[in-house]
């Protein structure tokens, strides 16, 4: 079963410039809602393996990219297609909400 990949400020561009849609979970270890949505993000990574990339970025370890996108609240989940952000969700939401946003880009 695939797991969400960990991305950093350094490799962010190569990940979001993928040929397939990318869901990025901006999170932090101390964030309660991030811990709630974490298992959902991991499930999506397994279910959409080969169709989409599911990635996680720790905002405490990587400041450049979250600042670039103006992330002020976590979890923030962004969907990228062809290198551009096409959708965004802030806060812990139901799996169906994330799935709907990801499927819309397939």
TrEMBL record:
Keywords: Disulfide bond, Electron transport, Redox-active center, Transport. One of its GO terms (molecular function) is protein-disulfide reductase activity. Signal peptide: none annotated. The record marks 32-33 as: Contributes to redox potential value. Pfam families: Thioredoxin. It comes from the Bacteria. Disulfide bonds join 31-34. Belongs to the thioredoxin family. This is Thioredoxin. The gene is trxA.
């Amino acid at each position: 079963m695939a797991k969400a990949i960990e991305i950093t400020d350094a490799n962010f561009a190569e990940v979001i410039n993928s040929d397939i849609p990318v869901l990025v979970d901006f999170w932090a270890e101390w964030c309660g809602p991030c811990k709630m949505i974490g298992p959902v993000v991991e499930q999506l990574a397994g279910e959409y393996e080969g169709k989409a990339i599911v990635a996680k970025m720790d905002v405490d370890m990587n400041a450049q990219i979250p600042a670039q996108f103006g992330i002020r609240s976590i979890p923030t989940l962004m969907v990228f297609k062809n290198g551009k952000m096409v959708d965004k969700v802030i806060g812990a939401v139901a799996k169906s909400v994330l799935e709907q946003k990801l499927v819309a880009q397939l």
